[in-house]
Amino acid sequence: MTSGYMVFWYAGVALLTLHLLLPKSRDKPKSFSLSKAFGYETLRKEAEGAGWNLSSKEFLWIIGLAGALIALIALFTGNYFFIALGLALCFTLPRYIILKVKRNKRTQLLFELPSNLRLWISKMGDFGHVQKALESALPDMEGSTKSMFQVACDKLRIGLPLQRVLEELYAEIRIRKLEDFGVKLLMAQMEGFHRRSLDSLKETVEQISEDIAQVKELEIEAKSKRRQLVIIVAMSWMMPILLSSLSSNNGNLFLDTWYGQIFIVSFATASLFAVGKGDDFLSLNLDEL
């Protein structure tokens, strides 16, 4: 196949990939921008849910670096089928990063929660009042849950019912046993903050803490399995490397033939897919605790 045909072949593969990846819209055509083409608005909303204010400049930097890296690989190897992989990576990499940020934020929130709840309980015995106890505990609280408790305290200060404030807190933190804590807190508010009610609240917090300790253990185990997966994928690349050394006629099967180039790009795509999906399968669903 001549070099001229190869250029048209590469361009066709790249355009087909771009056509398949670009979101289809039935709305009237709007002004084109790269960030819109790669789904920036949708990703920005997802990032906001993780507490990350993703700017269009940051988004373009991510897809720009991904595209530049793949372009360098394509130029270095002379395999321009990597352009198709680069286009796909420009779509998937931002989503992967946002997912990792969301998981890290969620993990951090869970690890910080028990200590802040203990602070709140310790002040209840001193003040005998939910709002005053929370106001006193807030300066000593830490982490992302501190802002959530601050919002809850502000709502109590303006006179919102405790049950409504707790329900909104459940929806934001999303831990089932926190609802048990809320039920006991409502009972303590009615019956008084005596030793038995405080001990009951502490017991629920300890149960939450034990669940989170198990999450930590599972995270350590999952991290080890992720490392093993990366090692296996890296070792699998020994096969094309060894086969390329067996090429004859002073040529490299995977660099100098178009079917070898397609195989390498397909192998690279499968490797990235395996690592990405493996990370998904090994990650815990921390939204269902």
From TrEMBL:
Signal peptide: none annotated. The chain crosses the membrane at residues 6-22, 59-76, 82-99, 229-246, 258-276. It comes from the Bacteria. Residues 198-228 form a coiled coil. Keywords: Coiled coil, Membrane, Transmembrane, Transmembrane helix. This is Type II secretion system F family protein.
